[in-house]
Design goal:
heterodimer; A: alpha/beta; 10 strands; about 25% strand; globular; B: mainly alpha; MetI-like fold
Chain lengths: ~250, ~240
């Protein structure tokens, strides 16, 4: 049984043009699946749809064999307890320091013991290289540091699957590597991840599978080597040659 | 005229006149406080209802928008008349103070709802997404991060509006509410010079409004300061991003 199984998922913003068209995709436990494709191809919309920020119009999402009902608040709530998403724009709460950004959801929403959560959050922030920034506020941190806090915040929720939505796109080039290092650590830990990225070197390095999307559809999927070295569809060949510059 | 002013001054400052003005001053302050407290509370609720992340009920949002848009566009005197006759129509016998306080509250609710709406909408939409993806509900979001962040946008215009609200209570003199403007008219009708009657009015309104203005300005400066700012340091100091 697949950890996450998406079957013919369709979605649109405000009932207008479909941003996802019959998207089917499976993710096994411990897999790192990267979504690639041009801007507007539906990669981010797929992640938003999975956590219920964009309600799918049709199709099915199964998590460990259990169907998610996106029209049912309880079902979506249960889903969000198992999936965590990191956004391109970090989205940290500006009135909270790094530690509180990481602890707020486990303590206030999951009602976990504050001291225990704080210890875990401190360890997570150390893991992403921010042990000395526990009490720094977002406006005192660089973009890369903010994004690492956002990753630690998602991990503090102990998700089964981590969704990463272009987490390096908003960063200055010199800050990208620190975030990529944090993702490499998670990959080494065996974290299941569904990742949208334009960092092709990272995609190739850590992905167990790469999925190419275009105009809301999955057009090709396979191992990273296969997709990058031997793409089958014309669109994928075109995209890969453009992005790899050959 | 100058001579008659000086002659009138001791009598104008008699105990009975001063206590007369002091009582009117108290009524103006009470009207402003009751109206602002009730109005700002209702205004906050209206702003929350209007925010789809907090209350996702379309008819409630329409009601909130309708209330705010209507009462912001009606002059204070018209609002006062509407409230006055509304109480009559429903057969409630209330004091003129209640009529005026209700009107002040209506005005405060309509304007503060708009001020708070703008404050909440100034927050990046993506922060609401982040909160929602963590199962953080609208009310909890408001309490934990949305309101603490939007105060910077809400407080300065809210305080400026409060000054205007205090001044607008003077229109209650039209329905004979015993507040500052009415008291000044009475003193003028008793034969005191308009310079003394309305001059004292000017001073008393100034005594209420000026501290509010000073506080608003101080608050604005405080909110502009970067975190960790110390007196003497430049206001636009580097935030210290690494």
């Amino acid at each position: 049984m697949h950890h996450l199984a998406i079957d013919r998922l369709t979605a649109s913003y405000d009932g207008k043009e479909q941003v996802l068209v019959d998207v089917s995709l499976q993710v096994a436990k411990g897999e790192i699946v990267s979504l690639i494709g041009p801007s507007g191809s539906g990669k981010s919309s797929l992640l938003r749809s999975l956590v219920g920020l964009l309600v799918p119009k049709s199709g099915e999402v199964m998590l460990d064999g259990e169907k998610v009902d996106y029209t049912n608040r309880k079902s979506v709530k249960a889903l969000r307890e198992r999936l965590a998403i990191v956004f391109q724009q970090y989205n940290l709460f500006q009135n909270m320091d790094a530690l509180r950004n990481v602890t707020v959801a486990p303590v206030k929403i999951r009602k976990r013991n504050a001291r225990e959560v704080e210890e875990e959050a401190t360890a997570l922030l150390r893991k992403v290289g921010l042990g000395d920034k526990l009490h720094a506020y977002p406006d005192e941190l660089s973009g890369g540091q903010q994004q690492r806090v956002a990753i630690a915040r998602a991990l503090a929720l102990k998700p089964d699957i981590l969704l990463l939505d272009e987490v390096t796109s908003a960063l200055d080039p010199e800050l990208v590597s620190e975030v990529l290092d944090a993702i490499r650590i998670l990959a080494a830990d065996g974290m299941t991840m569904l990742m949208v990225s334009h960092e092709m070197a990272l995609v190739r390095e850590i992905s167990t599978r790469v999925v190419m999307m275009d105009r809301g559809r999955v057009i090709e999927e396979g191992t990273a080597d296969r997709i990058f070295d031997n793409p089958r569809t014309e669109r994928c060949q075109e995209f890969v040659s453009k992005i790899l510059g050959h | 005229m100058g001579g008659s002013l000086l002659e009138q001054l001791p009598l104008f400052l008699s105990y009975s006149n001063v206590s007369f003005l002091a009582r009117a001053f108290g009524v103006t302050v009470a009207l402003s406080i009751v109206g602002a407290v009730v109005g700002y509370t209702v205004g906050a609720l209206l702003a929350f209802i209007r925010n789809r992340h907090v209350v996702d009920v379309l008819p409630a949002r329409f009601l909130s928008v309708g209330f705010s848009e209507t009462f912001r566009r009606v002059p204070f005197l018209v609002k006062l008349m509407v409230v006055f006759f509304a109480f009559e129509v429903v057969g409630m016998r209330v004091s003129m103070f209640t009529v005026t306080a209700t009107t002040v509250a209506l005005a405060a609710a309509a304007f503060s709802a708009e001020i708070m709406r703008a404050g909440l909408e100034a927050l990046p939409e993506s922060q609401w997404d982040a909160a929602e993806s963590m199962n953080m509900g609208g009310v909890m979001s408001l309490r934990l991060w949305a309101l603490p962040q939007s105060w910077k946008v809400i407080l300065p215009p809210a305080l400026s509006f409060t000054v205007g609200l205090v001044k607008s209570t003077s229109i209650a003199s039209q329905i004979s509410v015993f507040e500052l403007t009415y008291a000044a008219k009475v003193l003028n009708e008793r034969g005191f010079s308009p310079v003394l009657s309305f001059g004292s009015l000017l001073v008393l309104y100034f005594m209420i409004c000026y501290p509010l203005n000073l506080y608003a300005r101080r608050l604005e400066r405080q909110l502009e300061r970067p975190r960790g700012w110390k007196p003497g340091a430049p206001l636009l100091a580097e935030s210290g991003a690494a």
